[in-house]
Amino acid sequence: ANTQLFAAHSKLPIMTASGIQPNNVTKAFDAGASAVGIGSAINKLSTESEMVSVLSALEKAVSNRPMPVLV
């Protein structure tokens, strides 16, 4: 909700980073985020293999979306 509010009232790029996971990352961009922070999604994992898997899933989730244009 904050991402949507900030994006609607600011010309600055908005980064959101709360609870971003492969199943909700597109919602962050739909709400107006220009970028997402994924530290928690990666840091809580035990192995490098798990980290790569989540990173790949995040990338796949947003790969067909147009990138935001910052003016």
Summarize the structure.
This protein has 71 residues and is mainly alpha-helical. It has 4 helices and 2 strands; from the N terminus they run H-E-H-E-H-H.
Task: Give me the Rg, rounded.
Answer: 13 Å
β-sheet strand percentage: 5-15%
- Got a strand count? 2
Number of helical elements? 4
Average pLDDT over all residues: 88
**In which range does the helix fraction lie?**
40-55%
Give the overall form.
elongated
Low-confidence stretches: none
What letter string, H or E per element, gives the SSE order?
A: HEHEHH
Strand order of the largest sheet: 1-2
Q: Main beta sheet, described? A: 2 strands, parallel
Q: How would you classify the helix and strand content by structural class?
A: mainly alpha
- Cα(first) to Cα(last) distance is 23 Å
Explain this structure to me?
The longest helix has 15 residues, at 48-62. This protein starts with a helix and ends in a 9-residue tail after the last helix. The model has no long low-confidence stretch (mean pLDDT 88). By secondary structure, it is mainly α. Helices cover 46% and strands 6% of the residues. It is elongated. The protein has a two-stranded parallel ribbon with strand order 1-2. The protein contains 4 helices and 2 strands; from the N terminus they run αβαβαα.
